[in-house]
Amino acid sequence: MSPARPPANLPALILAAGRGERMRPLTDTCPKPLLAVRGKPLIVWHLEALARDGVRDVVINTAHLEEQFEPALGDGSRWGLRIRYSHERADHGGALETAGGIAQALPLLAQAPGGERAFWVLAGDVFVPGFHFDADVARAFADGLDERTARDLAHLWLVPNPAHVPQGDFALDAAGRVHHKARAPAGAPTFTYSTIGLYRPGMVDGVTPGQKAALRPCFDRAIDTGRLSGRTHLGEWTDVGTPERLAQLDVAS
Q1: What is the rounded CA–CA span in Å between residue 133 and residue 137?
Q2: N or C: which end of the chain has fewer CB within 10 A?
Q3: 0.90 exceeded by the pTM?
């Protein structure tokens, strides 16, 4: 008997529309996800990891200098991927913020197997070379096979708080539930959102495609209804938010 085939992974949305104000002047001429780290663009590190872990369909949302993405990345075939683009500047005149970008990309994600139920979301401007886009975890989330996350709108990967976010973004309890920092159970530590997660389309319910909308209110609603879970990622992770952090990554290589 041949071994069982591993489950196919879900599609991914890479958020790449932002202006990258803190990275100026570098981002005056190059979108932040296309800036090179250790010899290749930040977003290519993501594409290689997604392909390695069985993702086949990727949507990239763009706005700032969006005309540079397709010439640089093409259709994804060099990595064994199918890349589709959600061009927010061309279609709507500018970036739609995170929740707006997700809502706009939902029809493209739904064209991929499983994408109508759940998908990966990750920011194009973080460096996380050892992250594993686990297909088993993804499919269990999408199919509701894990009772701990079956009702959740999203499942987030959280990292130890870096120096520039000392208080963290959320609290995480021992059962893997995400809480507001101010209303967390006693002893629940705080963490910073890695900008990587598994999402269901319902996470952006109420956001009209083409509408600018921030993601934080969606997180708040999910926490308040007990529908946000998470786990920690303890490997290398950098929010490449300043030219200094970008330079430090190359020095550390």
Answers
A1: 8
A2: N
A3: yes
> In the chain, what are the domains?
12-251 (3.90.550.10)
Q: Residue 147: which residues within 8 A CB-CB, separation 6 or more? A: none
Give 163-193 pLDDT, tens digit per residue. Answer: 888 899 999 999 999 999 988 888 899 999 9
Which tokens belong to 243?
């030219």
Half-sphere exposure of 33 (CA within 13 A, CB side): 26
Cα separation, 80 vs 183, whole angstroms: 44
Place of tokens 């927010």: 88
Pairing of β 170-172 and β 190-199:
antiparallel
Q: Report the pLDDT value the prediction gives residue 7, as an integer from 0 to 100.
A: 55
Determine the Cα–Cα distance for residues 154 and 227; give it in Å rounded to an integer: 7
DSSP state of 176: S
Q: How far apart are CA 48 and CA 52, in angstroms?
A: 6
